[in-house]
Amino acid sequence: RQALRRLYGDRAVFWDKNRPATTHALLRTLKDAARAQDSLTGLRALVVGMPNVGKSTLLNALRNAGSPGRKAKAARTGDQAGVTRRVGTSVRVVESEEKGGVAAGVFVLDTPGIFQPYVDDGETMVKVALAHGIKKGLIPDELLADYLLFRMNRWDPRLYARYCEPTNDVNDFLTAVAARDGKLKTGGLPNWQDAAARVLSQWRDGRLGRYVLDELRDDDIRAHELLLQQPLLSLHQAKKMQKEERKKEKTRS
Q1: Where does the chain have alpha helices with state H?
Q2: In this predicted model, which residue has the larger pLDDT, 248 or 232?
Q3: In whole angstroms, how far apart are CA 249 and each of 118, 214, 235, 253?
Q4: CA dihedral 133, 57, 35, 37 (to 10 degrees)
Q5: What range(s) does the G domain occupy (predicted)?
Q6: Is the pTM higher than 0.70?
Q7: C-beta separation of 132 from 54 below 8 A
Q8: Partner of 90 for a Cys bridge, out of 5, 105, 107, 221, CB 3.0 to 4.6 A?
Q9: What rounded mean pLDDT belongs to the chain?
Q10: pLDDT tens column, 28-81
């Protein structure tokens, strides 16, 4: 939070689906923006973000808090990336002033998850997969569990103490998970795939610690600030730049 506050100041509003107070805080921010804009057609807000981070869940929470009595979901949700496939119609989350709301009302549009066009860093892709930001199966669960074990050992090995002693061997770790949580094949052999899926589920539910996967040291924040000032590359531009870098490396060698 401190890093985001430093980058975006008061523009950063934190939301937790399990804390209704944060939904109401975000609604207040939207209402303030609607008053300031004072548009005849109401304030339009777009929910934008990476896949499977809770955009549709946020829209539903805002609608339920801003328009009490509406029980049906305005946006379909799911635990896999890609549930929302197109920009939806605007959903009223705050009524107009005539109906007890603010100005001409507040409308929110849900959008499909967006992803940077080109990623040449394998570790970044693993982090995104751990956060459930890409389709399940693109990166094997066992590989994700191996990386998560590496990170937990850096944070605090006690995070998985209920399974086994500290270890760097993912097979030993998954064997312990399989034995404790009943992820076994016929004959009592450990099912590493099911054990890995269990570990990932535990991690995503916050039962193996609540840590961010990105580094948030001062140097990293400064690097991100510089990155924000640079225009994004298209897929073609990124590939071209990578080829040029490889040519330079060959020339040096």
Answers
A1: 2-8, 20-37, 55-66, 122-130, 141-155, 170-181, 192-204, 218-228, 235-252
A2: 248
A3: 21, 28, 21, 6
A4: 40
A5: 45-125
A6: no
A7: no
A8: 107
A9: 84
A10: 999 999 999 888 888 999 888 888 788 888 988 998 888 766 655 666 665 555
Do the strands 106-109 and 43-46 form a parallel or antiparallel pair, or are they unpaired?
parallel
Residue with tokens 């590989």, as numbered in its chain? 143
pLDDT band at 157 (very low <50, low <70, confident <90, very high): very high
Tokens coding 213:
């996967």
Q: Which domains does the chain have, with CATH numbers?
A: 1-110 (no CATH), 118-240 (1.10.1580.10)
- What does the alpha-carbon distance between residue 249 and residue 247 come to, in Å, rounded to a whole number? 5
**AA letter at 192:** W
For residue 83, pLDDT over 60 is answered with no
Beta strands across the sheet bearing 106-109: 43-46, 106-109, 91-94
Name the token pair of 126.
């693993």
